[in-house]
Amino acid sequence: MPNTASAKKSFRQSAQRRLVNISRKQTLKGTIKSYKKLVADKKTDEARKELATVYKRLDKAAKVNLIKKNTASRLKSRLSRLVRQN
C-alpha cells in the first residue's frame, strides 16, 4: 500500500480510471456484439446504420488510448467487410 500522500492520491486516481476504462470497454464490446448480431440475422440496412455507431465508439476508444489506433482501424475494416459479404 502507498505511504506518501502523493502515492495515496495516485492510487485513488488509478482505481477510478480503471473503473472508467472497464465501463468504456464493456460499452464498446456491447456495441460490436449488437452489430455482429444484426449482420448474422441478415438485417443489412439496420447493420449499416449501426456501423456508424461502431465506428464512432472505436474512434473514441482509440482517442482516449483505450485501444490502439491500429487496433481500431483493423476492427473497423473487419466489421465493414462483414456487412459487405452479406
How would you describe the overall organization of this protein?
The chain is mainly alpha-helical and 86 residues long. It contains 3 helices and no strands. It has one domain (25-85). It has helices at 5-40, 44-63, 69-85. Helix 1 (5-40) runs antiparallel to helix 2 (44-63) and helix 2 (44-63) packs antiparallel against helix 3 (69-85). The longest helix has 36 residues, at 5-40. The termini are far apart. The mean pLDDT is 95.
Topology of helices and strands:
Blueprint: H1 5-40, H2 44-63, H3 69-85
Helix pairs in contact: 1-2, 2-3
Mean pLDDT: 95
Helical percentage: over 70%
β-sheet strand percentage = under 5%
Distance between the termini: 53 Å
How many helices? The count is 3
- Main structural class: mainly alpha
The major pleated sheet works out as: none
Number of strands: 0
Query: Low-confidence parts lasting 5 or more residues at pLDDT below 50?
Result: none
> Any idea what the radius of gyration is?
17 Å
> Helices and strands, in N-to-C order?
HHH
Indicate the overall shape: elongated
Total domains:
1
